[in-house]
Design goal:
Strand order of the largest sheet: 2-1-7-5-6
Mean pLDDT: 80
Radius of gyration: 24 Å
Number of strands: 11
Order of helices and strands: EEEEHEHHEEHHEHEHHHHHHEHHEHHH
Number of helices: 17
Distance between the termini: 71 Å
Length: 401
């Protein structure tokens, strides 16, 4: 006798998104009718994909992973912080989660009709773009799972407008708490996000001088750290508040929306800009102390090992205040504002993960680094970004040395 399984896509935290998959007496796999008691999970995945095609952006059922769970449909809170496979593993006892191996039989997991008041399967699939301007553009996750991305230290997304860079960043930040900064945002711009970066850049103009790059650097770093501090301070407060009340749940997606749509919250002004003004007044040493305190506290409030820091439209900073900021080399070339962003973020004591998105060319990519005196020095740096062998690295070094 056929029955239905209640399914939920990994990352969907509302039970309104539950959908049913019918388990018939026979399923069709590879053109053959297979009795359900003899069907393997791998064949059942083909059945799910063929019958619920509109739910997925994949063509190969092998890209789909199934987790058997037992979650009462009256207990939606159990999935509010389940965005990744790592989250399922972390909460496997609470969710009664078990990975459904492709070679196992369906009967190994559902030998009797399950309760209709439960979520029975969480389906994990890579995501892809669906917007009309991005049809056919493969996103971040078919290439890398979120676990692989978060195990990186740096991620550069380069591409033309409409290639899906920003969407990939949003997908990442819907699944893990992070800091989102953007240039050319808000105030009528089609780009989402706070204007605090653009306003800080504008305010910097009245302090910068042509003949004192060291002073310029100190001021610019203080302004940039102020924006990061604003995000860290509010994130810590919200996490602490919601952790004290088991009936409340604060998700990465909600946090991302606060960063993308600040004027929707206050309905008057961009509150991130106002907060950054407060932290600008702190001395450098006080900024560093507070950053260390907040990042340490963040690690106690969440299970995240890294805090992604995303800078969208970062290519704008390459052409901003060119040759105004000092370099770490004794007689190195003066740097643009882009170098300030890198230095401010990379000096945070967070075990952070930096993601830069924008139309950065490879020429610009190399020009933002202080340079290399030896090929092996460049090799250590470049292997983090590009899959080059020793021969190609040597050729690249000869070009850019």
């Amino acid at each position: 006798m056929s029955f239905s399984l209640n399914c939920l896509l990994l990352g969907d935290t509302s039970f309104e998104k539950i959908f049913q998959v019918t388990v018939p007496d026979y399923i069709i796999a590879d053109g053959a009718n297979i009795p359900i008691r003899d069907a393997q999970i791998g064949q059942f995945k083909s059945h799910i994909l063929s019958n619920k095609k509109s739910k997925f952006s994949i063509d190969d059922p092998d890209d789909m992973n199934l987790w058997k769970v037992e979650i009462n449909t009256d207990d939606e809170s159990k999935v509010k912080d389940v965005f990744t496979v790592e989250d399922i593993k972390r909460k496997h006892e609470e969710l009664k989660a078990k990975f459904m191996k492709p070679v196992d039989l369906i009967d190994d997991y559902f030998s009797v009709r399950p309760s209709g008041k439960h979520v029975h399967i969480i389906i994990a699939v890579p995501t892809s773009t669906v917007g009309p301007s991005q049809q056919g553009v493969t996103q971040l996750y078919p290439f890398k799972t979120i676990e692989e991305v978060m195990n990186s230290n740096y991620l550069f997304l380069m591409g033309t407008s409409g290639s899906g860079k920003t969407r990939s960043l949003f997908e990442l930040l819907c699944r893990t708490f992070g800091i989102y900064l953007s240039l050319r945002a808000g105030n009528g711009s089609r780009n989402l996000g706070s204007q605090d970066m653009d306003i800080s850049i504008s305010d910097l103009g009245q302090y910068l001088t042509v003949n004192d790059p060291d002073k310029n650097t100190l001021i610019a770093l203080r302004f940039t750290r102020a924006m990061l501090l604003g995000r860290l301070f509010i994130l810590n407060k919200l996490l602490d508040f919601h952790n004290q009340d088991v009936n409340r749940n604060f998700t990465p997606k909600q946090w991302l929306l606060m960063q993308l749509l600040p004027t929707r919250i206050t309905e008057i002004e961009d509150f991130w800009t106002t907060i950054s003004y407060v932290f600008r007044e702190l001395k450098q040493e006080d900024q560093y102390k507070l950053i260390n305190t907040l990042t340490a506290n963040f690690n106690t409030l969440t299970s995240q090992e890294k805090l992604p820091i995303v800078i969208d439209e970062s290519q704008v900073a390459i052409d901003t205040y060119k040759e105004h900021f000092s370099t770490t080399q004794t007689e190195g070339q003066l740097r643009p504002f882009f170098s300030i962003l890198l230095r401010a973020v990379l000096k945070l004591n967070t075990g952070n993960f930096l993601c830069l998105s924008g139309g950065i060319t490879f020429k610009e990519f190399f020009s933002i680094h202080d340079g290399f005196y030896e090929c092996n020095e460049m090799s250590e740096f470049i292997r983090r970004f590009l899959p080059l062998n020793d021969e190609l690295i040597r050729a690249t070094f000869n070009i850019f040395q």
